[in-house]
Automatic annotation (TrEMBL), chain A:
Pfam families: BPD_transp_2 (PF02653). Keywords: Cell inner membrane, Cell membrane, Membrane, Transmembrane, Transmembrane helix, Transport. It is found in: Cell membrane. InterPro entries: ABC_transp_permease (IPR001851). This is Autoinducer 2 import system permease protein LsrD. The chain crosses the membrane at residues 12-33, 45-64, 97-121, 166-184, 216-235, 247-265, 270-287, 299-318. PANTHER family: ABC TRANSPORTER PERMEASE PROTEIN YPHD-RELATED-RELATED, AUTOINDUCER 2 IMPORT SYSTEM PERMEASE PROTEIN LSRD.
């Protein structure tokens, strides 16, 4: 059983380690067997593909650790993208629009947070509702048209690389945010409280942790980050559309669960999630290079999502059976 | 040696408990509320544009509701057991494409074969969901979110960019949607049968009551010796099979089927069920309430068109309705809780 | 493994038995006789073991010799290592033994079953029979493994080893449905009703009356429920939903369920905990009539007067092990308690006399609608104030409101004269308050988190440097306090759920003492922990008070209240009914105040 295993061994067999190793394996195998996978150009593309998933996954990890979920992130992204196009058409400057869009995302988060922590509604149902609501509003704002004439220096920065090398500019953003979120989650009292809330909200409350307030702010942050990603998405494709990022919530949730975060809350680490995101993106990238169609790729994403929860369950069940059999044998002896 | 409780509990309270009764009635009026909302909506729209009440308009509304109501029936059963099936839209797509391909290749196959094939495709998809939920102990949300993409992905990788056009399909298949029996379109008739049978099963048969019990208290259901595994698989198979049936109806009604058929339908189905008064935490709600929810959503959609309101509001309204519905459920629960607390007060 | 474990553990029990023997009702003759037999004649024992395993014989013979030996082996060590206590019973209560031989086999027999969860062995080698027409009590402290036994009989858990037999043949329940089919009905401590369904449906679930079309016959179903309620003498409306029923009514619905299933074995896990005296009497009347109709009853209760009133036989458990199965008539209540606890209860309460200091906590006119009303009291430094009363009197609720985890409607809470913000545990903590809550598993600890994280949870903010936490400081803080409380643990990084109940309680205490409180609220501090740790906790509380800490203790155990408290505040139905000093307080005066009779103070 786990309590008799030395710490290093349980760490080595931990889920996030397995995912990290798997990720490295996929990267290595793909660079050798898939044509163009290992090129610097492809690296840039991969980081750009990674960008929305990884950024939204940062707050999503915290939310799932507290035992909740936010399925509305992709719709928030779409709404901010729509708003960005609409505001741009109204003639606002891009410097005003970008912070405004982050605020719009945060407001979406405030609505989620209020419904969930203020009224005590189940987060799954609420965010399925706002998933439809925000996406619907995005279409109301922009219809099925697109706004494309964003200033080149901004769109260029998002797609560009540092000193025209292989390292994309956005990687700085990713690293900076990942470090901040990582520190907050793993080395602050706030981060500690998230795990306590997810594992036992009542005990957390009895320990003086403000459960509702903590969750509320997580939704606000999640909304704000989704808003930021809406901006980056729009700039990357130089196109503000209402259906931008549709279905991205699945990829994010899949990556987070793949990274070893328990859907029931209380367990998981950010490094594991980062590995999960990279694994997912690398797999999709490699398959796309192998000419597998984009929609068919969803089979992989969907399967990984289910497997990431299924496999740990199976191993616990097998381990339990093994333990019981051992007991029986010991008793029979 | 232990201090024991001798609290005199009010055994007579349950009989004379108006608060409880009122709360119960409030729940029962949920379906009535939808009917009322429908009536107001229809009246308002009809005053604005009397053509909204024309035979053709009503027929269109009913035909559009039929597919949604069939899926909502299955979804209601799953949600009543405190689960969810998000894969229904993808199952519809898979079934529609399978059946359309089958019919275009075998022009002489009778309609019943198409329906059975659709049911079978859906049942298998639903079975996989159920097995993963029950035996894999993976939450239904995760499973069906995953299979939502897996089933859609399968359809895409099979269809590629191709589509089955109306002119490739046999005539009897296409006319099925519009043919009438005693003046009622087949599509509507099938939906009525499904909703009726579903309601009957959930209300008057043991298995239906067991499904309610499972959603009302999963732990107690296990302890009561209910065959939870069998029932849960059954619920998911039913939801899948009905989504498969909806796929056949979809193909027959629209004639043109590609891999994107039914994309995003799950949202409307869940909305119909939740708006129809099925509590997201299971245990309460009715199948015919969910069907009413489906009707309401459809009528809202067509009313928007008639009233010349931006069509894009439709989805936002769906979202708002979902949130409104769960708020209403919550309100009722809080009110019941408060009245109970007052009743138990001896102070 | 199990065998090796069993031996040394059982030895003290054997010793205590020998020590106890003179105090029991048995004449010393047969007891000594039995003891010598134990030492001298293993063959007899073997025979006895085989004798009791008689129905097993056929099955055993069909198998290979060594397998048969293996099969017979488990009971044997049990017999040899079992404290001698069972022996005198068999000698003195020969009638019971004859019953076994002449009449049908036990309706249900638990044979040497063991069950462990992870590393925790919940039940080890327990055997006892349930005979038709007999009520059998199962007693033991919290955590003794009673509930695990219940769950095995209910088919929820499968025994790791050992067997269950119904009417003489082995059964293997793969789920509750199997147990139900075997005629076993279980009434759990917490009722297991379906809140959304009607009362009649709850009763009929699984065997609803059907019409010819196999539809549910609602009329018949309601009539059945009504008939059952009439038999039970309760005026419940069969059509109302189960949601919102009082615990007592829920319990009655559960009994109606068992009646409707025509159960042949009725297992009741503390069914009376929330019932009034009248309700208990009514329940017992029903149970007696069931018993006299030939049902086998298993009854779990902490109230010995109920056991003596209802049961013929009793099985005593301690720490997951079988201690004794005897006729109730042959045992005094003191005997039962002694065997449950494993030693005498004296010297448990080492309260030191302390001169109380300044007032730390002042509660004035605290009210919460429907829960408690107009509660006022104060606590001084160095004082231990106990809140006594019946379960449900509102004691925990008052203290949770004081600490801020629960809301209150009116009144004030002052610490050192400063008024506290309501509903804000952080303010209470900042003012130097700490609450060790009633429910360790749900409120006290986060079971999945490590010991160190649990200990540092309330003061993570204080341990942080520049807002950041490093493993070292947390570990250090956790280590200091777990060591000071002599917590037995493997590694601080282990999940706290792997510890025993007593050590978990120490972790909760460590968690709150580490915050350096001025006022410590402890709610049922010794519930479900072993006696040794109990004494440690009491000693700790006493020395903390001696150091000037103000302590408020909520406790349901009268000896604990009387032994530890300087002052006792008695609550009844949400109101203070008495405030007694140490000198005034007796078992009677506290109980009178708790039950509603006013005491002249």
């Amino acid at each position: 059983m786990s309590d008799t295993r030395p710490a290093w061994r349980s760490r080595l067999t931990g889920w996030d380690t397995i995912i990290a190793v798997l990720t490295v394996l996929v990267l290595i195998i793909a660079s050798f067997s898939v044509e163009n996978f290992g090129t610097s150009r492809n690296f840039t593309f991969m980081v750009l593909d990674l960008l929305p998933i990884i950024l939204i996954a940062l707050p999503m990890t915290m939310i799932i650790v507290t035992g909740e979920i936010d399925l509305s992130v992709a719709s928030t992204l779409g709404l901010t993208s729509s708003m960005m196009g609409w505001l741009w058409n109204q003639g606002l400057s891009i410097e005003t629009i970008i912070p405004l869009c982050v605020v719009i995302g945060a407001i979406c988060g405030v609505v989620n947070g209020f419904l969930i922590t203020g009224l005590g509604l189940p987060s799954l149902a609420v965010t399925i509702g706002t998933l439809a609501l925000y996406r619907g509003l995005a279409f109301v704002v922009l219809g099925d048209g697109a706004v494309a004439d964003f200033p080149w220096n901004y769109t260029g920065w998002v797609t560009g690389t540092i000193g025209d090398g292989a390292v994309p500019n956005v990687l700085i953003l990713i690293v900076a945010l990942a470090v901040i979120f990582g520190i907050v989650q793993h080395a602050t009292p706030f981060g500690r409280s998230l795990y306590a809330i997810g594992a036992n909200a009542q005990a957390a409350h009895f320990s003086g942790i403000r459960v509702a307030r903590t969750k509320f702010w997580l939704y606000v942050v999640s909304g704000a980050v989704a808003g930021l990603v809406g901006v980056l998405w729009t700039l990357r494709y130089s196109s503000a559309r209402a259906d931008n990022g549709a279905g991205l919530e699945l990829a994010v949730v899949a990556a987070v669960l793949l990274g070893g975060v328990s859907i029931f809350g209380g367990k998981g680490s950010l490094p594991g999630v980062l590995a999960g995101v990279v694994l997912l993106t690398a797999l999709q990238n490699a398959l796309r290079l192998e000419d597998v169609s984009g929609q068919a790729l969803n089979i992989v994403t969907g399967s990984l999502l289910v497997l990431s929860v299924l496999l740990p369950n199976i191993t616990t069940a097998v381990r339990g059976n093994w333990h019981r059999r051992k007991l029986r044998q010991a008793a029979a002896r | 040696m232990t201090v024991t409780s001798n609290r005199s509990a009010p055994t007579d309270a349950p009989l004379g408990n108006p608060a409880q009764k009122r709360a119960g009635n409030l729940l029962k009026t949920r379906e009535l509320g939808i009917v009322l909302a429908l009536a107001i909506l229809v009246a308002y729209t009809a005053i604005d544009n009397p053509r909204f009440l024309s035979g053709q308009s009503i027929r269109d509304n009913l035909l559009n509701t039929a597919i949604l109501a069939v899926m909502a029936t299955g979804q209601a059963v799953v949600v009543i057991t405190r689960n969810i099936d998000l894969s229904v839209g993808s199952v519809l797509g898979l079934s529609a494409f399978t059946v359309a391909t089958m019919m275009s290749n075998n022009q002489d196959l009778p309609m019943i074969v198409a329906i059975l094939a659709g049911l079978a495709v859906g049942a298998v998809a639903g079975l996989l969901n159920g097995v993963l939920v029950r035996y894999g102990k993976v939450p239904a949300l995760v499973v069906t979110l995953g299979t939502l993409y897996i089933y859609r992905g399968i359809t895409y990788s099979w269809a590629g960019g191709s589509q089955v056009n109306a002119d490739e399909l046999p005539r009897h298949f296409l006319t099925f949607a519009n043919d009438n029996l005693l003046g009622i379109p087949w599509l509507v008739l099938i939906a009525l049968i499904v909703v009726g049978a579903g309601s009957l099963m959930m209300r008057n048969y043991r298995v239906g009551r067991e499904l309610y019990a499972m959603g009302s208290s999963p732990a107690a259901a296990e302890l009561a010796g209910i065959k939870v595994a069998r029932n849960l698989l059954g619920a998911f198979v039913l939801s899948g099979a009905l989504a498969g049936l909806a796929g056949v109806l979809y193909a027959a009604r629209f004639g043109t089927v590609d891999a994107a058929a039914g994309n995003g339908y799950e949202l409307n189905v869940v909305a119909a069920v939740v708006v129809g008064g099925v509590a997201v935490f299971g245990g309460s709600g009715t199948v015919w309430g969910a069907a009413l929810g489906a009707l309401l959503l459809t009528v809202i959609g067509s009313a928007l068109a008639v009233l010349d309101i931006n069509q894009f509001w439709q989805q936002a309204i769906v979202g708002a309705l979902i949130i409104l519905a769960i708020c209403a459920d919550r309100l009722v629960a809080v009110r019941i809780g408060r009245s109970l607390r007052k009743r138990d007060a001896h102070v | 493994m199990a065998e090796a474990n069993a031996r040394p553990e059982n030895r003290p029990a054997q010793n205590s038995q020998i020590k106890n023997d003179p105090t029991t009702d048995h004449s010393p003759g047969p007891a000594t006789n039995e003891t010598t037999q134990d030492k001298a004649a293993p063959p007899t024992r073997e025979k006895a073991a085989q004798d009791s395993a008689a129905p097993d014989k056929q099955a055993a013979q069909e198998q290979q010799d060594n397998v048969a030996q293996e099969k017979a082996a488990p009971p044997a060590p049990d017999e040899t290592t079992k404290p001698a206590s069972t022996r005198p019973t068999q000698a003195t209560t020969g009638t019971a033994k004859r019953d076994n031989k002449n009449h049908e086999p036990a309706r249900l027999e638990v044979r040497n079953v063991s069950k462990s969860f992870g590393a925790v062995a919940a039940v080890q080698g327990v055997s006892f029979p349930l005979h038709p027409g007999e009520a059998h009590a199962l007693v033991g402290e919290n955590g003794a493994g009673k509930s695990t036994i219940v769950k095995m009989l209910a088919g929820v858990h499968r025994p790791d080893t050992g067997t269950l037999r119904v009417d003489g043949s082995d059964v293997d329940f793969s789920g509750p449905a199997d147990a139900k089919a075997a005629g076993i009905a279980v009434i759990y401590q917490e009722p297991t009703l379906f809140p959304d369904l009607s009362v009649a449906e709850n009763i009929a679930m699984g065997n609803q009356p059907l019409t010819r079309l196999r539809q549910i016959d609602r009329k018949q179903m309601h009539a059945n429920a009504e008939r059952l309620f009439r038999r039970l003498g309760v005026p419940l409306d069969p059509t109302r939903p189960a949601r919102g029923l009082s615990i007592a009514d829920q319990q009655l619905v559960e009994i109606a369920k068992a009646l409707s299933a025509e159960a042949r074995v009725l297992i009741m896990d503390e069914p009376t905990a929330a019932l009034s005296a009248v309700e208990v009497e009514r329940l017992f009347a029903v149970v007696r009539s069931l018993r006299d109709e030939g049902a086998a009853i298993m009854f779990i209760s902490h109230r010995f007067e109920e056991i003596t009133a209802l049961c013929q036989r009793v099985t005593i458990m301690r720490d997951g092990r079988h201690v004794a199965t005897e006729m109730v008539a042959d045992l005094s209540v003191d005997d039962m308690i002694r065997r449950m606890v494993g030693r005498d209860l004296s010297a448990l309460f080492p309260k030191q006399e302390v001169e109380p200091g300044e007032v730390v906590l002042e509660v004035e006119g605290l009210s919460r609608e429907g829960v408690f009303r107009d509660i006022s009291f104060s606590v001084r430094a160095g004082e231990i104030v106990a809140l006594a009363g019946l379960v449900g009197a509102g004691r925990s609720e008052v203290m949770q409101a004081v600490f801020g985890v629960d809301p209150y409607d009116s009144g004030t809470v002052k610490v050192h004269g400063r008024r506290l913000k309501r509903n804000e545990p952080r303010a209470a903590m900042a003012a130097g308050m700490a609450l060790v809550p009633e429910d360790r598993r749900q409120q006290g600890l986060v079971m999945d988190l490590s010991i160190e994280r649990n200990v540092t949870l309330p003061r993570a903010r204080k341990l942080a440097r520049l807002g950041l936490l490093f493993g070292g400081t947390e570990r250090e803080a956790a280590e200091t306090w777990t060591r000071r409380l002599q917590t037995k643990l493997g590694r601080l990084s282990d999940a706290v759920g792997t510890l025993s109940g007593g050590n978990q309680q120490k972790v909760v205490l460590a968690k709150w003492l580490a915050t350096g409180p001025k006022l410590l609220i402890v709610d049922e501090p010794t519930r479900g922990i072993d006696v040794g740790t109990k004494a440690e906790v009491h000693r700790l509380m006493s020395s903390l008070a001696a150091d000037g800490l103000a302590v408020v203790m909520v406790s349901s155990e009268l000896p604990e209240v009387l032994g530890m408290a300087d002052r006792i505040i008695v609550l009844r139905e949400g109101r203070v009914t008495a405030e007694l000093t140490r000198g005034e307080a007796t078992e009677e005066s506290v109980m009178y105040a708790a039950m509603g009779q006013e005491v002249a103070v």
